[in-house]
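Here is the promised in-class demo. Please do not try to memorize the tokens; focus on the logic of going from shape to residues.
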């Protein structure tokens, strides 16, 4: 596969796992919610591809044209805004992965589709719970 496509997949895979991890840690350490934390952990562990070495070889952080943060990424008002931002980050990344994995494996594409829909469902439930405790 073309190196720029692998680079895109690598970046989105990292972004997906990072977004899920932030949400997972909020429910693990702030809310002490084992069940939700475990669901998120399982989703994070599903977000894997067998082409790790190939992706890593294409990683080029120093030449990322949008490496610097924009204002909206630098500010968070509260725990709720962190939660929402990271749900959105993970959902968007899983959509990109779903599309680009169609070039590699329909099975992997379907896995990322599953992750995306699970995140939509969890977001609906969990943001309601946390917005009430703001």
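The designed amino acids, position by position:
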């Amino acid at each position: 596969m073309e190196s720029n496509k692998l680079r895109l997949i690598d970046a989105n895979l990292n972004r997906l796992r990072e977004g899920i991890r932030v949400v997972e840690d909020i429910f693990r350490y702030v809310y002490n919610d084992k069940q939700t934390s475990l669901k998120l952990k399982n989703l994070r562990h599903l977000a894997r591809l067998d082409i790790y070495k190939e992706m890593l070889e294409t990683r080029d952080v120093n030449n990322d044209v949008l490496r610097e943060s924009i204002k909206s990424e630098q500010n968070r008002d509260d725990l709720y805004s962190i939660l929402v931002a990271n749900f959105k980050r993970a959902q968007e990344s899983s959509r990109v992965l779903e599309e680009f994995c169609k070039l590699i494996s329909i099975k992997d594409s379907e896995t990322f589709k599953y992750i995306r829909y699970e995140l939509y469902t969890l977001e609906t439930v969990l943001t309601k719970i946390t917005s009430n405790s703001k």
